Amino acid sequence: MILLFYLNYFMIFLIFSLIFMLISLYMLSFKMSIYVEMGLLKFNGNSMTSLFFFDFKSIMFVSVVFMISSMIIIYSMKYMEGDLYSIKFLFLLTLFVFSMLLFILGQNLLTILLGWDGLGLISYCLVIYFNSWSSYNSGMITILTNRLGDVGLILSISLYSIYGGWNYLFLGDNNYSYFIYLVLLGALTKSAQVPFSSWLPRAMAAPTPISALVHSSTLVTAGIYLLMRMEEMIKFDKNLCLGILILSMLTMFYSGVVGVYEMDMKKIIALSTLSQLGLMLMGLIMLSDNYMYFHMIMHAMFKSLLFMCSGVILHFMGGNQDIRNLGGLNFMFFNTLMFFNCSNLSLCGFPFLSGFFSKDLILELTIMMNNNYWLVMIFYISIMLTVIYSFRLIYYSVVNFMKFLPMFLFGDDMALNLPMYVMYFYSIVGGWGMSNLFLIEGNLVYLKFTIKILLLLLILVSFYISMGLNKYFFEVMKDAKLVNFIYSMWMINKFSSYLNFSSLWLGGGMVEKIENGWMEIISLKFMMFFLVGVMSVSKMKLSIIMNLLLMILFFYFIIF
C-alpha cells in the first residue's frame, strides 16, 4: 500500500516535470510571458486578488523542482523503508513541493508570503522528523533564524500597501529603498548568507532525502530567486549592491575555510551549498540574472546527486558521518562512488561537466570586468577552498582505508542507484544542453590563453594543497583555540544561539513582569478589589448610590 502511494506520487511529479519543461521551451522560443489574476475576496468595495506570473524561468524552475522531487520519492522508497511514518514523510514532501510552486509562480507579495511561510514551516517539521533532542535544537535554530526573514517580508508587505497593491512589478516611482531592505533581510536569512548562516549546517539533522531536495536545491535558493525577480530595483542602489557583494564574498570565503576543516560529511556538503549560494548572489550583483539562474539550475542537479550519494554511503555505514572512518568504498560502492566523484568534480567546475559551463563563465566574465582586486582575490581563494574540501572527500572515500566496520558485505542497491543515474546524466550533459538555452545571444569573452585555463589551474593547485593538507591536518588541529573558532563557524553559531535564547529569555521576562505582573494588577485584580470594596458598603449606602445613579440617568435622557 505504501509502495503504491510512492509510485503514484513519483509518476505524477515526473509527468508534471516533463509537461512544465515542454511549456518552458515553448515560452522561450516565442518569448512569451503570461499574467494570471485570480479574485479571492471582495469586502466593502475592496478586492483581494492573487497574481501569478508565468515565464520561461519560473516554469523551468518548477520543472526542476518536480523532477528532483520525483527522483527523491523513488530514492526514499528504499532509504525510508523501515520508517514507521513514511506516509507522513511523503505528505510533508508533497506539501513542500506545492509551497515551492506557490512561491515561484506568485507575483503578488501576499501570495509569495503564503508560499514563503509554508516553506519555513514544513522545513521545520522535516528537520525535527527524527525525534531527538539534537533535532529539536537544530529545528529551533532553523525556525527562529528564518522567522527574522519572515518579519522582514511581512513589514515589506505592510510598507508596500501604501501603493494600493502588492504587485512589486508595477511600482510607479523610485521611493522603494526601505522596501528593498526589508525584502533583502528575508532573502538573506532564507539563503543562509552572513550573518544568518548557522542554520543551514544544523538543518542537516533532517533525513538525507530531505537534505537532497530542501536544503540543497530548492529552499535555500528561494531567497536568491526572489532577489532575481527584483534585480532592477536592487541595482538602482549602488551602495546596496556593494553591501550584498561583500556579504556574498564573505559567505563564500568563510564557508570554504570551515569546510576544509570539517569532518562531518553532510556538514561539508551543506557548507559547499553555502559557498555556492554566495557565488549565485555574487553573480546576480556583478553580472546579470541569467548567469545566476543558469548556475542555480546546474547546482540543483549535481548537489542533489551529491546528497543522494552521501545518503547511500551513510546508510550502509550505520549512520556514521565522520569521513575519517571511510575508505576503500570503490570496492563496495562502485556505481555510487562514481556518481559521488562526478558530482564533486562538477562542484569544482571540472571540464566539461555541468558545473563547468556556469562556473567558468562567471569566472571569466568577472575577470573581464573592472572589479576591486580584493574582491576578485577572495573570489579565487573561495573557489580554491571549494576544490580543496571536495578533493578531501574523494581522498577519504577512495584512497583512505576503512576504519569503521572491518567485516561486512554491503554494495550498490539498484533501487537507490536508479534515481542517481538520472541525476548523473544531468550532471554530465545538463550544462552543455542548458547553456544553449539560457545564453542564446552568446558571450564575447576576450582573454589570454593562460587566463582562460585559470579554472583548470586552480583545480590542479588546489588538488596538491588538499593532498598536503591531509598529511599535516592533525598538526594543524592541535591548536584548541583555532579548532573552536573554526568549528563554531567563526563564532556565528554561538552568536546565533545567544541571540535566539536571549530573545526567548527577554520574552519570558516580559511575560512575567508585564502580563503576569503590572497588567494583571491593573486589570483583573484591580477590578476584583474594586467590586469587593463596593460590595462591602452597607445596603443602605448602596441603595442611596443606586438611587443617585438612576436620577442622574433620568435627567440625562430628559436633557439630551
Automatic annotation (TrEMBL):
<feature type="transmembrane region" description="Helical">
    <location>
        <begin position="51"/>
        <end position="75"/>
    </location>
</feature>
<feature type="transmembrane region" description="Helical">
    <location>
        <begin position="542"/>
        <end position="559"/>
    </location>
</feature>
<feature type="transmembrane region" description="Helical">
    <location>
        <begin position="518"/>
        <end position="536"/>
    </location>
</feature>
<feature type="transmembrane region" description="Helical">
    <location>
        <begin position="87"/>
        <end position="105"/>
    </location>
</feature>
<keyword id="KW-0249">Electron transport</keyword>
<keyword id="KW-0812">Transmembrane</keyword>
<feature type="transmembrane region" description="Helical">
    <location>
        <begin position="267"/>
        <end position="288"/>
    </location>
</feature>
<keyword id="KW-0496">Mitochondrion</keyword>
<feature type="transmembrane region" description="Helical">
    <location>
        <begin position="178"/>
        <end position="196"/>
    </location>
</feature>
<dbReference type="GO" id="GO:0042773">
    <property type="term" value="P:ATP synthesis coupled electron transport"/>
</dbReference>
<dbReference type="InterPro" id="IPR010934">
    <property type="entry name" value="NADH_DH_su5_C"/>
</dbReference>
<feature type="domain" description="NADH dehydrogenase subunit 5 C-terminal">
    <location>
        <begin position="389"/>
        <end position="559"/>
    </location>
</feature>
<keyword id="KW-0813">Transport</keyword>
<protein>
    <recommendedName>
        <fullName>NADH-ubiquinone oxidoreductase chain 5</fullName>
        <ecNumber>7.1.1.2</ecNumber>
    </recommendedName>
</protein>
<dbReference type="Pfam" id="PF06455">
    <property type="entry name" value="NADH5_C"/>
</dbReference>
<comment type="function">
    <text>Core subunit of the mitochondrial membrane respiratory chain NADH dehydrogenase (Complex I) that is believed to belong to the minimal assembly required for catalysis. Complex I functions in the transfer of electrons from NADH to the respiratory chain. The immediate electron acceptor for the enzyme is believed to be ubiquinone.</text>
</comment>
<feature type="transmembrane region" description="Helical">
    <location>
        <begin position="6"/>
        <end position="30"/>
    </location>
</feature>
<dbReference type="GO" id="GO:0005743">
    <property type="term" value="C:mitochondrial inner membrane"/>
</dbReference>
<dbReference type="Pfam" id="PF00361">
    <property type="entry name" value="Proton_antipo_M"/>
</dbReference>
<keyword id="KW-0679">Respiratory chain</keyword>
<dbReference type="InterPro" id="IPR003945">
    <property type="entry name" value="NU5C-like"/>
</dbReference>
<keyword id="KW-1133">Transmembrane helix</keyword>
<feature type="transmembrane region" description="Helical">
    <location>
        <begin position="485"/>
        <end position="506"/>
    </location>
</feature>
<dbReference type="GO" id="GO:0015990">
    <property type="term" value="P:electron transport coupled proton transport"/>
</dbReference>
<dbReference type="InterPro" id="IPR001750">
    <property type="entry name" value="ND/Mrp_TM"/>
</dbReference>
<feature type="transmembrane region" description="Helical">
    <location>
        <begin position="240"/>
        <end position="261"/>
    </location>
</feature>
<keyword id="KW-0472">Membrane</keyword>
<feature type="transmembrane region" description="Helical">
    <location>
        <begin position="373"/>
        <end position="398"/>
    </location>
</feature>
<keyword id="KW-0999">Mitochondrion inner membrane</keyword>
<dbReference type="GO" id="GO:0008137">
    <property type="term" value="F:NADH dehydrogenase (ubiquinone) activity"/>
</dbReference>
<feature type="transmembrane region" description="Helical">
    <location>
        <begin position="331"/>
        <end position="353"/>
    </location>
</feature>
<feature type="transmembrane region" description="Helical">
    <location>
        <begin position="446"/>
        <end position="465"/>
    </location>
</feature>
<feature type="transmembrane region" description="Helical">
    <location>
        <begin position="300"/>
        <end position="319"/>
    </location>
</feature>
<dbReference type="GO" id="GO:0003954">
    <property type="term" value="F:NADH dehydrogenase activity"/>
</dbReference>
<keyword id="KW-0830">Ubiquinone</keyword>
<feature type="transmembrane region" description="Helical">
    <location>
        <begin position="208"/>
        <end position="228"/>
    </location>
</feature>
<feature type="domain" description="NADH:quinone oxidoreductase/Mrp antiporter transmembrane">
    <location>
        <begin position="107"/>
        <end position="386"/>
    </location>
</feature>
<keyword id="KW-1278">Translocase</keyword>
<keyword id="KW-0520">NAD</keyword>
<feature type="transmembrane region" description="Helical">
    <location>
        <begin position="151"/>
        <end position="171"/>
    </location>
</feature>
<feature type="transmembrane region" description="Helical">
    <location>
        <begin position="418"/>
        <end position="439"/>
    </location>
</feature>
<feature type="transmembrane region" description="Helical">
    <location>
        <begin position="112"/>
        <end position="131"/>
    </location>
</feature>
